[in-house]
Specification:
Elements (H helix, E strand, L loop, with lengths): L3 H24 L4 H22 L3 H22 L5 H13 L19 H27 L1 H10 L3 H19 L5 H28 L1 E5 L8 E2 L3 E3 L2 E4 L8 H9 L4 E5 L5 H13 L3 H5 L1
Antiparallel strand pairs: 1-5, 2-5, 3-4
């Protein structure tokens, strides 16, 4: 069987992403063993391929993918876009999917106009936007009364006028162009609804994503929603949001009973869906537009 190790690696990666998605949805945590075992398996599988082919390139590309994954993950981690679990998992994805697995080409016809890991990154961004908007709309429908009360308190008149004006200019410009008319019209529509998405995001954060929980339920990797004080002194700063085991121990010794944490949207399902779409269809941005 040709490239059996690559088939096994792809299968395990997708199964691991399903398991990680389940953990993320259920507990908002991603076990480290998933990420580290994927990295190890990627090097083992590519090491076997390198030995069989008498070439160091499969192993070298795996290392390059890991380095790129680390760089991208650390960027998003230190800009507070991802938690540590998400960052580690993307490092593993980088080591596995640095190149498109050629063993799949007889079965799929993906659009591979860019490096495969970049395609996965683009697909993650697109799916994350759709996923986040869907989650926000779900929360808004679920808690309509609370959302209406919050919405009335926010003055968005100026923002709506600005976005409507920009959208109108783009839409008028789109009418003069035949080839780009559809794309520009979509951009105009997105600009028109952008203020509402931003407002709904902020309301969702205040209503659904900030919770006060007992210290006994706080786990490593949770994110602080506000500073923690003891005797009018800051003990933990929300500017360094990710809680460590040492932080939990410090709070326990000071007999802090409760803290407010920010509950993020479970993001691993985005990794899973983006990986599958990338393997089957390639760059979905090009496919759609």
């Amino acid at each position: 069987m040709d490239m059996i190790e690559e088939i096994i690696l792809i299968g395990i990666t997708l199964i691991w992403l399903v398991i990680a998605s389940f953990h993320d949805i259920k507990t908002r945590e991603i076990p480290d063993w998933i990420s580290f075992s994927l990295i190890g398996l990627a090097f083992v599988a590519r090491g076997i391929t390198s030995l069989r082919e008498g070439s160091a390139y499969p192993l070298l590309w795996t290392g390059i993918g890991l380095v790129i994954g680390i760089a991208f993950s650390l960027l998003l981690y230190y800009t507070k876009q991802w938690g540590g679990g998400d960052a580690k998992l993307f490092m593993a994805i980088g080591s596995v999917f640095i190149l498109f697995p050629k063993v799949m080409l007889p079965y799929v016809n993906p659009k591979l106009d860019l490096p495969f890991l970049l395609i996965i990154g683009i697909n993650i961004i697109i799916i994350a936007v759709i996923y986040s908007i869907g989650y926000i709309l779900y929360q808004a429908l679920k808690k309509k009364k609370l959302y209406k009360e919050q919405f009335k308190k926010i003055n968005v008149k100026k923002t709506k006028i600005i976005s409507a004006s920009i959208a109108a200019i783009i839409f008028i410009f789109a009418l003069t162009l035949e080839e780009q008319a559809v794309e520009l019209s979509i951009i105009a529509l997105l600009i028109l609804i952008l203020p509402y998405i931003i407002i709904l995001t902020k309301i969702t954060e205040n209503i659904s994503m900030i919770q006060e929980i007992p210290l006994s339920k706080v786990t490593e990797g949770d994110w602080l929603a506000e500073n923690v004080y003891h005797n009018h002194t800051i003990i933990l700063k929300k500017s360094k949001p990710e809680i460590t085991k040492q932080d939990i121990e410090k709070l326990r010794k000071l007999h802090i009973q409760k803290i407010k944490i920010k509950v993020g949207i479970p993001f691993v399902p985005v990794f899973l869906v983006a990986s599958i779409i990338s393997l089957v269809w390639g760059n979905i941005f090009i496919r759609v537009f």
